Fold this protein.
Amino acid sequence: MASVTFDRVDKSFGDGTRAVDELSLEIADGEFMVLVGPSGCGKTTALRLVAGLEDLSAGEIRIGERPVQDLPPRRRDVAMVFQNYALYPHMNVFENMMFGLRSRGIAKRKAADRVDDAGRALDLSELMKRRPGQLSGGQRQRVAMGRAIVREPHAFLMDEPLSNLDAKLRVQMRAEISRLQRQLQATTIYVTHDQVEAMTMGDRVAVMRRGRLQQCAPPQALYDRPVNLFVASFIGSPAMNFVQADVLDDARLRVGETELPLPRGHDKLEAYRRRAVALGIRPEHLRRAGADSELRLAARVVLTESLGPMMLAHVELRGRAVVTEDVIEATTDGDDLLLGSKDDTVVAAIATLEPEDSAAIGDTIELALDPRRLHFFDLDTGAAIYA
């Protein structure tokens, strides 16, 4: 295996679209790197640039220490797993997995041994004589992975490989791909628009927007300390709640008509006195207030969803919504985001309640904001404000 490096990579198309913009990113040898972002953010184009399926406009791509941007795809020694599996329908499983090896001139016995080993690892040994049309979606996906594994390439490139599977099978295949990657210690670049896939699979996750890298970090770091409004909006399910907060002169915050003490550990907010900032709080950190809750907001319940171990309460808060381009672009249901903003003094939000909570539609409840879990962002630049 080998590292993969993007060094100030650009890709522009003939119509002027800049799909990848000054991308610099290093994927370590054996690392599982996930590229994630909304449709059109450049993640698939970046993957195709590594594979040699697109030509760079500027910059350099290295696999190991070797620049590869001028090499044809067959000389880059990478294996790609596509969304549609790309299996030969007239060949059985064994023949599909053997095809690439034989075309590269690998001896028949050695190639067969590789296929047998990969078949055992992927639980395909009993399916070797079947053709793709006789397999389930998950089985076809495993065959596509096996065909890549037997090549023993420098890097695996996976382009939304689970998007055609149903929800239950996606969960199973996520675990299977992660297990195999760690077993093989294979350098892997995995593209997805599903941030749950990204957070559960990647050693690091690179969040892209409009061709530019926004943040690259381990999943927990992205969740805990997003660098801007876009990343904060995109990472997390359900999405982070946002409301405008005015920073007052007396070390207090005003949200709608409610004034709160400035939370400890947020000293940099002092520089925003007499200005508004975006206050972000994840649904799992917005809960029913208890007797000792210091930061409280009143909310009206408009919908509840029981998920078994918890209940999601869709609520309305008094305040001003954060309706910025960053937030709307990162939120797949951006239209829903605006539904609670027809009245510019009401903000739609989601809170997490205990399953036995008696909150009913129309109730007004008090919600507690965990001061350790608050996020603040500059409304002009979108940048996070951290102490």
User: Anything to note?
Assistant: The chain has ten helices and 20 strands. The mean pLDDT is 90. The longest helix spans residues 167-184.
